[in-house]
Design goal:
The protein is mainly alpha-helical and 115 residues long. Helix content is 63%, strand content 0%.
């Protein structure tokens, strides 16, 4: 389990990057970005994982009796989920506005946006 979770996180991230590089649709690109973001959830949870650890509730444990899972990593993963959902919602709102103004979601056809 020590390396497998890191390999899964890398594979999910690379799959999202591949989809982003080959995307011809802005909605698909936003979806691929959220797949890349989900690789960070797996990575954070892999960092905080401990074998045979219990939940970080200390009411019945003596200090050092058995290992516990780090609650900071779990809080970071939850924060990552909230930030990822917010960014995805904002990007999808921008795609809707681009679609309304230009009539397309294909990045190659948006010639008015080129500098």
């Amino acid at each position: 389990m020590d390396v497998f979770a890191y390999l899964v996180a890398a594979w999910v991230f690379l799959a999202g990057c591949y989809g982003l590089a080959t995307s011809r649709n802005l909605i698909h690109a936003v979806g691929c970005l959220s797949v890349c973001q989900s690789a960070t959830y797996v990575l954070l949870l892999a960092v905080g994982y401990r074998d045979r650890a219990t939940a970080p509730v200390f009411s019945d444990l003596k200090p050092g009796a058995r290992p516990v899972v780090d609650p900071v990593v779990q809080a970071l993963a939850l924060t990552d989920v909230v930030v990822g959902a917010t960014v995805t919602a904002l990007l999808l709102a921008l795609v809707v506005q681009v679609s309304k103004r230009h009539g397309t979601v294909d990045p190659d056809e948006l010639s008015e946006l080129r500098g």
